Amino acid sequence: MTEGITMTPVIEVAQARKDAEPVQRDIVFDIQKLTASYGKEPAISDVDLEIYRNVITAVIGPSGCGKSTFIRCLNRMNDLVPGAKIDGKILYQGDDLYASGVDPVEVRRRIGMVFQKANPFPKSIYDNVAWGPRVLGMRKDLDERVEKALRGAALWDEVKDRLKKNALSLSGGQQQRLCIARAIAVEPDVLLLDEPASALDPIATSAIEELMDELKRDYTLVIVTHNMQQAARVADMTAFFSLDVDEGRRTGVLVEYDETAKIFTNPSDKRTEDYVTGRFG
Amino acid sequence: MNRDRRRRIVNRTMEAVATVAAIVAIAVLAIVVISVAKRGAGAIGWDFFTKPQALFGQPGGGIANALVGTALLVVMACAMALPVGVLTAVYLTEFAPRRLAVPIQVVIDVLAGLPTIVIGIFVYALLVIGHTQSGIAGAFALAIIMLPLVARATQEVLLLVPSTLREASLALGVRRWRTVLGVILPSSVGGILTGTVLAVARAAGETAPLLFTSSIFANSVQTDVTKALPNIPVLIFTYSEQPDPALHEQAWAAALVLMAFVLVASLAAKALLARSRRKLVG
Question: In the CATH hierarchy, which fold is given to the domain comprising A2-276?
Answer without folding.
Answer: Rossmann fold (3.40.50)
